[in-house]
Amino acid sequence: MSAPAQRASVRDFADAVDALDWTRIRADIHARGFATTGPILAPEKCGGLHALYDDDAFFRSRIVMAKHSFGRGEYKYFDYPLPTAIEEMRTAFYRQLVPVANKWQELTGGSVRFPPEHAAFLSRCHGAAQARPTPLLLRYDEGDYNCLHQDLYGEHVFPLQVAILLSDPASAFSGGEFVLTEQRPRMQSRAEVVSPGQGEAVIFAVNERPVEGKRGVYRVRMRHGVSRVKSGRRHVLGLIFHDAA
After folding, report:
1. In terms of residue numbers, what domain contains 222?
2. Closest to 159 (Cα-Cα) out of 98, 95, 78, 85
3. Of 42, 70, 111, 143, which is the most exposed, with the fewest CB atoms less than 10 Å away?
């Protein structure tokens, strides 16, 4: 494939992100703390991404969840330089989500403002010794699951992240639903169960989100996880926008 053709193919990933209905998605995130995107990636592109899991040259570390009481299953953090398609999607998602992140800072009276471009935010992270890349591939087999958790890696945290389902729930696995919980002040936790299709992303709050109530703005604490996989194998691409210390 020629170099121009390669660039066009890679740009397809970012174009797919930019083409989403961002008015609807941002409204859903503000209202519920998460949103689904509809299909972003075609099956062949999903297959190409989850096939990377077997090549350790792309990754900096492998985590077996059971060893850390995170659940069951495993995941690998990509190393820099990221595969170009993943870097393109990470950059494109950040650019579309930064208005939400800054609005949340305004609502909660926070002093942090996120720059419009992801490279500038990464420079902020790296200046604070958060320099290890955080995009990851997760793999779940039958019986695997992921406990409820938050992905916080240092002082600088972007308040949203993205999970893209790479496997086909109609043929590759069953179970393994995406689970979100929120804890509002003086209330019991509430759960949402999300079942995206292959190539679809779920965008959700990393640790908390603001909610505008009758008495002002209050913070809702959020966690996410994955229910037990009943059969087959499930692959997910995770895009976290802050790097790790």
Report:
1. 3-240
2. 98
3. 111
Tally the residues of the chain.
245
CA distance to 11, 22, 112, 170, per residue, from 18 (Å): 11, 8, 25, 27
Global pTM? 0.93
Residue 245 lies in a domain: no
> Between 118-127 and 84-108, two packed helices, what is the crossing angle to 10 degrees?
80
- pLDDT (tens digit per residue) in 66-121: 999 999 999 999 999 999 999 999 999 999 999 999 999 999 999 999 999 999 99
Whether 84 is covered by a domain: the verdict is: yes
CATH of the domain at 91: 2.60.120.620
Max Cα–Cα distance, the chain, nearest Å? 60
Number of separate domains in the chain = 1
CA separation for the pair 116, 84 (Å, rounded): 20
